[in-house]
Amino acid sequence: MKLRSLRAILAGSFAVAVVSLGTDGIFHATGVFPPVGQPMSDAFFGLATAYRILYTILGGYLTARLAPNRPGRHVLILTLVGTATATIGAVSTWDKGPELGPIWYPVALIITAPVTLLGGKLAHGSHKN
Questions:
Q1: Burial 17-44 (b: 16+ CB within 10 A, else e)
Q2: 22: domain range?
Q3: This prediction's pTM
C-alpha cells in the first residue's frame, strides 16, 4: 500500500476517533453526560451512538476524498478496520459491568460501522460535478 493510500485511511480513522472522543469529553465537561466514571443512561449511549454514526460517515467521506485512486477500495478498507476495532472493543468489554455501558452499545458500534461506505458514496457523488 502506498503512503498516500495509507494516509487517506488513517485520516478517516483518526477523524472518527478524535471527533468522537472529543465530543464525549465536551459532553462530560459541560454536564450533558454525567462525569467520567459515573454510569450513563441508555439514552445517553443512544446519543453517543447517533453522533458516532455521523462521524463514521464523515470518516468515509474524508478517506474517499483523500484517496489517490479507487476511493471505494480505500473506504472499504476503512470500514473493515472500523468493524474489526468495534468487534475487539465489544469482546473486551462484554459483560464487564454497567460502568462500561449497556450490552447493546458495543454491538451497535459493530453494526453501524458499515455506514462508512455511505460517506464514500457521498464523496463520490459530490466529486462527480
A1: eebbeebbeebbeeeebeeeeeebeeee
A2: 3-127
A3: 0.90
The residue type found at 31 is: G
Number of independent structural domains in the chain: 1
69-78 per-position pLDDT tens digit: 999 999 999 9
Q: Which residue has the cell 464514500?
A: 120
Q: Which of 52, 69, 84 is nearest to 8 (CA)?
A: 69
- Measured distance CA(6)–CA(31) in Å, rounded: 37
Q: Residues 80, 54, 61, CA angle at the centre, nearest 5°?
A: 60
**DSSP string spanning 94-116?**
TTS-GGG--THHHHHHHHHGGGH
